[in-house]
Amino acid sequence: MTAPDAGPGRVVVVTGGASGIGAAVARAFAEGGDRVVIADVDAAAADKVAEEIGGTAVAMDITDPASVAAALDRVLAEVGPLAVLVNNAGLVAGGGLLVDLPIEVFDTVVAVNLRGTFTVTAAAARRMIAEDAGGAIVNISSIGARQPTAGLGHYEATKAAVDALTRTGAIELAPHRIRVNGVAPGPVHTPMTAGLMDDPQARQAWESRIPLGRIAVPEDVAPLAVFLASPAAAHITGTIVQVDGGQLLV
């Protein structure tokens, strides 16, 4: 049986693919000839991106195991066996020092970023194992997992946990020829960060921390996700690679 990451035409599911990094990643896979599925809680936005790239859209709430299972079953029935999963869906849900952060904000971020990533990974991996054709999982993390920023501790804690899941998944799924890797961007100008990035002072403060001197755009992140899911990365698993303009160096 041909491994699903052996060439174009693979079925690629991108969670949170309706905007930002997810949309850029989905577009990059589609441009490479893959059959891309936009899985997003915003069904209308998912439909729009899917139409633009010639892909498929499915409604998926990654915090709901039943929604995840139904969406992946639909992918299998209507598109084909899953070859690549990109766990991109995530949020910040606000900011605040640990002593001030509402517990509701913390719970929301954990539910989406950590529990959601775990839920989709487990469901997708079970289906990949059943197909016995290998595969690739790419988790979108953050350099915040390794470099703290005051007021973002809740978000950064979930991304550190995603990195841990990435490494454990790589070990557990290796016998099934499923590779698991992560991409850790620095600040990226997306709809989620637009309010901050459109503030000249805030943007300057962020850019002052980046040796290459600029905030990333989603298209800076997408090529690495595509590479890590490709045959060129066939012997890479359990790694988290930063795309941060050098920010972790300073």
TrEMBL record:
GO-annotated molecular function: oxidoreductase activity, acting on the CH-OH group of donors, NAD or NADP as acceptor
Domain of life: Bacteria
The UniProt record lists the keyword NADP: no
Keywords: Oxidoreductase
InterPro entries reported in the protein's UniProt record: KR_dom (IPR057326), NAD(P)-bd_dom_sf (IPR036291), SDR_fam (IPR002347)
Listed SMART domains: PKS_KR
The keyword Oxidoreductase is annotated on this UniProt entry: yes
Stretches assigned to the Ketoreductase domain: 10-186
PANTHER family, per database record: 3-OXOACYL-[ACYL-CARRIER-PROTEIN] REDUCTASE, SHORT-CHAIN DEHYDROGENASES/REDUCTASES FAMILY MEMBER
Family stated for the protein in its record: Belongs to the short-chain dehydrogenases/reductases (SDR) family.
Protein's recorded name: Short-chain dehydrogenase
